[in-house]
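worker-3 :: picked T9SS C-terminal target domain-containing protein
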Amino acid sequence: MKNVIKNSLVLVVLFATMISYANEIVTNENDDVTNVTLNDVTEGSVLSIKDMNGLVLYKETIQINGNYSKKFDLTALPDGNYIFELDKEFQVNLIPFDVNKSKVVFDKENESIFFKPAVVNNGGLLTIHKTILDSEFLGLSIFYENGDLVYSEKIENDQIFNKVYDFSSSIAGKYRVVLSNKEMSFEKEIKI
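worker-3 :: tokens ->
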């Protein structure tokens, strides 16, 4: 019964997240200006424009809760592939687009969501929870403050990854937890 309730809760969160994601609209207003409208943003979310090498071309911390709208002249970018990245509290939304001969085309079929893992330290017990969709792999690495790798694991084909690691008897200090898939990585520093 406990697992049924837990799985139901995860599904409710996923559907609510996908509904808010579906409301994100990117439209071309004319040849030079693209109006980007994002619904249900929260203060502190970060909107970035990146090239396909991950180079940040534009970055803004959103200062409002609710709807966000801004006009961009994306035609000024050199021909190539780019991505709008909206980094929210629990997820990162990726909206790819192409610039070709001053024309901007959004690739709606390849829009994606990366759900951030939850990393909690409770007295040296490190709990990591991550919902894994579409059989994406998840690489987990934990580094000590001097850069030494103290733990590494690769998780595949799990729908929900929920594990507790006991660091209560480990050397005191700062640890860096890195979780990654083929598209991005998430880092969190914890203190033991």
